[in-house]
Write a structure and sequence with these properties.
The protein is α+β, with helices and mostly antiparallel strands. Helix content is about 65%, strand content about 10%. Helix 1 runs antiparallel to helix 2 (about 40-60), helix 5 packs antiparallel against helix 6 (about 110-130) and helix 7 runs antiparallel to helix 8. The chain is elongated.
């Protein structure tokens, strides 16, 4: 038997309070009708109703009743005993049987709860027949139908709860598995990139430098007696240096983001917005202001990386539906702004970057801007979206002084 109680949610708490109010209201109704109608044993009815209400109210207040099924069973037994006394005094107590069904099914094991519901229904029908002095099948319809409804509702809720818990566990396992897979893919990617770079450096720069070193040593040995041979070695070393420099430039060019190859920064950011909108549920719109101008590669790479990181954060964390990306050429500086309509966050409450959980995005963007003398500002409030703005200073090209007229 599983004795774990379901976790209370705001909805289940509200339902529990409704059930408590229903029980107390029905007890008050039985006592009130006894007083209003002037029935025999009015004082006893009021006393029994009050006692039943007190015993019932003690259950939710006692911690053992909520944590232990045996304690809950004893509480239900005490409540049922007082209710039977009230039921013997007035037929109006029959209505209290309906909320008792829910309590018995919810707090007792399945078989015990079902037996308690049947016993409660039989007691209600028997007492009502005794009060009226006759019995007919119609008298049993109400309590029996109420019991059937209670069984269907409680057992249906329990089945839904078990299914919900199973799905929650599956989702947690899937999330953990996806996180493990993402970490494994990231590690594999880092190792593959390191291996690629190692091969590139070994096959280009290292080999070229080694060749230059050998040629210069050969020239050094030939210098005193064979100047022509030494000159040839020096010339060969110079050519090797030229070739190695070309390889180094090719190597550096290979590290440039592919999105910037053969295009402008504005076109690259616009394509980024289009790709993000196509791949995710985010309408990313691009706006260009000012006259585009050639920028240093470092500036273009930094701005593109910031735009990529900002949109990635919007997609992953903000749950936004739209984002506005603005690239502005403003003469002596260039600005990039990313504004979304997501749920926002408190910039002052961000956790510190951690190798396990991540959180390096904003730190990386700030580092890129600081390295180029720029600034990064983030404005966000929980529930009101996020605005990110970066500014990079540009060194304007030297202006040609007009020639003096004669």
């Amino acid at each position: 038997m599983n004795t774990a109680a379901p976790v209370l949610t705001p909805t289940t708490r509200a339902l529990a309070w409704c059930l408590h109010l229903l029980v107390l209201g029905l007890l008050a109704l039985a006592a009130g009708r006894a007083v209003a109608d002037g029935r025999p044993h009015t004082a006893q009815v009021v006393a029994a109703a009050a006692a039943c209400g007190l015993v019932y109210a003690a259950g939710p207040l006692l911690p053992h009743t909520r944590r232990s099924r045996p304690a809950a069973a004893w509480w239900l037994a005490a409540t049922g005993a007082v209710w039977l006394v009230l039921l013997a005094l007035t037929p109006d107590a029959v209505w209290v049987a309906f909320p008792l069904y829910f309590l018995q099914l919810h707090l007792l094991p399945r078989r015990t709860g079902l037996a308690a519901v049947i016993a409660t229904a039989v007691a209600a029908v028997t007492a009502f027949a005794a009060h009226t002095g006759s019995f007919s099948p119609a008298m049993a319809i109400g309590p029996a139908l109420g019991a059937a409804v209670a069984v269907a509702v409680v057992w249906g809720y329990q089945a839904l709860y078990r299914e919900s818990e199973q799905r929650r566990r599956l989702i947690e396992e899937l999330t953990a598995t996806r996180a493990d897979l993402a970490r494994a893919q990231h590690t594999a990617g880092v190792l593959a990139e390191r291996e690629r770079l190692a091969h590139e450096i070994h096959d280009t720069l290292a080999q070229g430098l080694s060749s230059i070193q050998l040629l210069l040593r050969a020239a050094e040995r030939a210098l005193p007696d064979r100047p022509d041979t030494a000159a040839r070695h020096v010339d060969a070393a110079r050519q090797a240096a030229v070739d190695n420099l070309a390889e180094a430039r090719r190597f550096v060019a290979a590290l440039t983001p592919p999105a910037l190859e053969g295009t402008t920064l504005a076109d690259a950011v616009e394509r980024l917005c289009t790709t993000t909108s196509a791949r995710h549920r985010l309408a990313a719109r691009f706006h260009l202001t000012g006259e585009p101008m050639p920028l240093p590669t470092a500036h273009e790479v930094a701005l593109l990386r910031v735009a990529q990181s900002a949109l990635a954060n919007t997609v992953r964390h903000a749950e936004a539906t739209s984002a506005e990306v603005t690239l502005s050429y403003l003469g002596d500086h260039i600005a990039l702004g990313v504004v979304d309509d997501g749920h926002g966050f408190d910039p002052g409450q961000l956790p510190a970057p951690d190798p396990e959980s991540g959180g390096f995005g904003l730190a990386s963007m700030r580092a890129r801007m600081n390295a180029l003398g720029g600034t990064l500002v983030i404005e966000s409030t929980p529930g009101h979206g996020t605005a990110l703005a970066v500014r990079l200073p540009l060194t304007p090209p030297p202006k040609t002084e007009p020639e003096a007229r004669p």
